[in-house]
């Protein structure tokens, strides 16, 4: 298993600390989703004027950058130009850091009907995929928000049909939020799945909460992660298993990265042995 983590889990860490702990804990790669409060990381010196030096520091630690996770909502017509610019910025970084993927969201469809939302998604993703492909990368649409359901995302991917587009399967969201079974997700989207997010949770009383679930350390919840890993391996998946510990969004609820990150590596290595 190739292991990575998103920097959403360590929002206060500077780049040096991210690199040091990634290596110490036994990760293979880093997925950049913000750095010390700046989500548009291409604006930072580490990813602009000093980008080549940053890449060298990461590579010298034996690590790779598995993905740049954007804030793009592909369905949006209002922010279309802004979204294209963001993809262009990350495509530039993909060339420097030899990174294969740019994560994008489908986004909320709001008042659009599903047919019009699907049309916009296809149109916008084709353009974004062309930009990414020119830099040797792919945009990956996450199973998230109004595109969690594989029945909605499958026709988009069929019609986009571009070498620069793929799917990021967040193992948590379809199962937890709509009860979608992993076998159904894979059957519909497996041919495009390039990358997976891993996290565990338990259902809780949703009163006063953003979601009716609480994120917990892997193995402490009831998401059938090991069955999902078996399904992935059975179908030949060889990509990254990426820990998305949402510490930035739930700072008071979730354990510190010094606890969560090494626990994830230990859990995943044990799971790897068990499913062989």
Automatic annotation (TrEMBL):
Domain Xylose isomerase-like TIM barrel residues, every copy: 20-255
Annotated coiled-coil segments of the chain: none
Keywords associated with the record: Isomerase
Domain of life of the organism encoding this protein: Bacteria
InterPro entries assigned: IolE/XylAMocC-like, Xyl_isomerase-like_sf, Xyl_isomerase-like_TIM-brl
Xref: SUPFAM superfamilies: Xylose isomerase-like (SSF51658)
Gene Ontology molecular function: isomerase activity
Name assigned to this protein: Sugar phosphate isomerase/epimerase
Organism: Paenibacillus piri
């Amino acid at each position: 298993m190739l292991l990575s983590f998103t920097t959403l889990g360590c929002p206060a860490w500077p780049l040096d600390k991210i690199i040091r702990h990634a290596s110490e804990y036994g990760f293979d790669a880093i997925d950049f989703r913000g750095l010390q409060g700046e989500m548009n990381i291409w604006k930072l010196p580490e990813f602009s004027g000093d980008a080549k030096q940053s890449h060298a520091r990461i590579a010298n630690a034996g690590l790779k950058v598995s993905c740049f996770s954007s804030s793009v909502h592909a369905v949006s017509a209002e922010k279309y130009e802004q979204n294209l610019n963001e993809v262009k910025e990350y495509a530039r970084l993909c060339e420097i850091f030899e990174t294969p993927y740019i994560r994008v969201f489908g986004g909320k469809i709001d008042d659009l009907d599903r047919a019009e939302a699907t049309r916009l998604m296809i149109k916008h993703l084709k353009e974004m995929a062309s930009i990414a492909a020119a830099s040797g990368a792919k945009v990956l649409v996450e199973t998230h928000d109004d595109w969690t359901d594989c029945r909605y995302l499958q026709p988009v991917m069929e019609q986009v049909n571009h070498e620069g587009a793929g799917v990021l399967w967040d193992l948590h969201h379809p199962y937890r939020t709509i009860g979608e079974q992993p076998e159904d997700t894979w059957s519909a989207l497996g041919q495009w799945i390039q990358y997976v997010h891993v996290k565990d949770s338990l259902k809780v009383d949703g009163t006063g909460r953003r979601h009716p679930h609480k994120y917990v350390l892997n193995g402490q919840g009831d998401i059938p992660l090991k069955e999902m890993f078996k399904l992935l391996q059975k179908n030949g998946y060889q990509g990254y298993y990426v820990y998305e510990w949402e510490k930035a969004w739930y700072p008071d609820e979730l354990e510190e990265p010094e606890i969560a990150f090494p626990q994830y590596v230990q859990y995943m290595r044990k799971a790897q042995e068990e499913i062989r």
